[in-house]
Amino acid sequence: MLTKKDQRVRRARQTRSRIAQQGVARLMVHRTNLHIYAAVVSDDGTKVLAAASTVQKDLRQELGGAGKGGNADAAARVGKLIAERAKAAGVEKVAFDRSGFAYHGRVKALADAAREAGLQF
After folding, report:
1. pLDDT (tens digit per residue) in 76-97
2. How far is the C-alpha of 98 from the C-alpha of 36, rounded, in Å?
3. Would you say 73 and 55 are in contact if contact means Cβ atoms under 8 Å apart?
4. How high is the pLDDT of residue 66?
5. Is the pLDDT of residue 33 over 80?
């Protein structure tokens, strides 16, 4: 019997194999109870082109200190920031890798904010 984490990792592996066939950079998202992380990884998976998370000092201060990184508002700010950094690195189009997490709540807020800021996926 698979644990909840094993099931999520299995879903993530299936998604990543499909994204690898597309040959496009991927916007990878990981969430914990307290924080959300996003990174744009090159199409071959060897380089991180841009990264943003609620752990970073400047964003943490903007959110109002510790304990504020685990909500949809914080995820939306990370989404906007990752889109800006990806565009600065020359990436316009990505594939969204939600790492097996359900597409709602914080993951959806991050994706919507990244789309509004100009990333295409």
Report:
1. 999 999 999 999 999 999 999 9
2. 11
3. no
4. 66
5. yes
